[in-house]
Amino acid sequence: MTIAEFSESLSATAVSQFIQTTDGLIPSLQTVHIICIAVLWGSALMVDLRVLGTGLKSESLRAVADRFIPPIWVCIPILLVTGVLLIVAEPGRTLTNPSFYLKMVSLILAIFVTLYLRGFARGAKPVTGLPVALAILSMLLWMTIIVAGRYIAYTT
Amino acid sequence: MIESFFDWMQSTAYGTAISETYFPMVECAHVVALTVVAGTIFIVDLRLVGLASKHLRFTQLSEQVLPWTWRAFVLAAITGGSLLMANASGYYHNTPLRMKAVLLLLAGLNMAYFQFVTYRTVASWDAGRPPGAARFAGWASLILWSGVIATGRWAGFV
After folding, report:
1. Is the Cβ–Cβ distance between A10 and A79 less than 8 Å?
2. Domain-by-domain residue ranges, chain A?
3. What is the ipTM for the molecules in this complex?
4. Does pTM surpass 0.80?
5. Nearest residue, CB atoms, B36 vs list A24, A42, A153
6. pLDDT-based confidence at residue A106 (cuts at 50, 70, 90)
């Protein structure tokens, strides 16, 4: 079965039909998705900026990471659930879309970079070139995720 | 008169260029910026309502976080204004977008009242639990900015 055939049979399922035909459900799911991205991206930014020596600099990197990395792990499952429901609603729009795969690859990389930064923050070592580079990479990855997510609407 | 102003905005070379070429890019920048605005405001709001960052003094948190909110807000306002100009005549009749304008106004008034009235007593609650008026401002902000996101997203479906 090709991805296109799978998309077609998925969109014919009762769940997909329900999401597609319930008035306002898709914008509501997208709203929850965007609010979670705001919480996640705002939190990640606090950690990244602190590694770069700005943002909440009155606090230690460890304190900033302990406060702002847990919300990232809370948001990701909610984003996955709302994201999967949005895919189920319109599989043909997403599953054959290169923007979607760019978003997913970036997400996996962003999770690993966040795990590294969490470990670095706990080590209480002086900030060197590698954590700085990965904090910048973290910001670039989260922005790529947001941009690629929006571009699903524009690419096929 | 307002409607003719919206028609004029769309007819400008700038509005046309956004509409014909740059809309997706500007929209992406808008989403990147608005998520920073909401995400960082929520950090301060959660401190006000007493749900997070409780060990931090309120002023310490707000003075270091809100500058990033304002930077992102400038970008969100410029990109949002540009998106509006791309299709101003259509957006003039867009009900969710009108609601968004009202919610933005209320969020601004909430912020102004907090800044100029409630915040004057900050010294007495900076390290502890904020008073009722400050907690109210925090909840109002959480709800209003969530509403701004919801109506903004909904506007794209009308």
Report:
1. no
2. 3-151
3. 0.96
4. yes
5. A42
6. very high
